[in-house]
Amino acid sequence: MARVQFAAAFDRNLERIRAFWTGNPNEFPRLVDDLEATVIPNLELYPFVGRPFRSRKARSVESRQRRSVLFERLGTAEIREYIAGDYLIIYWVDRPGDTVILVAIRHHRELSFDIRMGFGLD
User: Fold this and answer.
1) pLDDT tens, 4-49?
2) For residue 96, what is the DSSP state?
3) What is the model's pLDDT at position 40?
4) Which of 47, 77, 82, 86 could form a disulfide bond with 2, CB atoms 3.0-4.6 angstroms apart?
5) Which pairs from 13-19 meet CB under 8 Å and 24+ separation?
6) Coil, helix or strand for 66?
7) CA 5 to CA 14: how far, in whole Å?
């Protein structure tokens, strides 16, 4: 069973999401419940369940350049995407799958996020 940890950037993302949902107080607790009841247990049992992040195609010159720099710095790290309801979670998993680090989370309506901070590459 894998151990799931949280990067500091993931915690900051959660704080940003909590602040966003202040007008709708039920949404943030629902996200936290989903993380605790579904996402974390799934990743503990099946750490490679998410889609490989590296397989996502870059659609602009800027994206290709940023991906190239990021992947060069990360080396062979296994980066994956997990969709949980309205949220996209980026996580890192080691080989053989003993440790999962939740790196970033965003709502599907957000344009993007900077995952470099979650990997300590800022």
Assistant:
1) 999 999 999 999 999 989 888 899 999 999 999 999 999 999 999 9
2) S
3) 98
4) 47
5) 13/104, 13/105, 13/106, 13/113, 14/105, 17/105, 17/106, 17/107
6) helix
7) 14
Tens of pLDDT, residue by residue over 49-99, are: 999 988 888 888 988 888 888 888 777 779 999 999 999 999 999 888 899
Residue with tokens 């397989």: 55
User: Ramachandran region of residue 85, left (φ > 0), alpha (ψ -120 to 50) or beta?
Assistant: left
CATH tag for 3-119 (out of 3.50.50.60, 2.40.110.10, 3.30.2310.20, 3.30.750.24): 3.30.2310.20
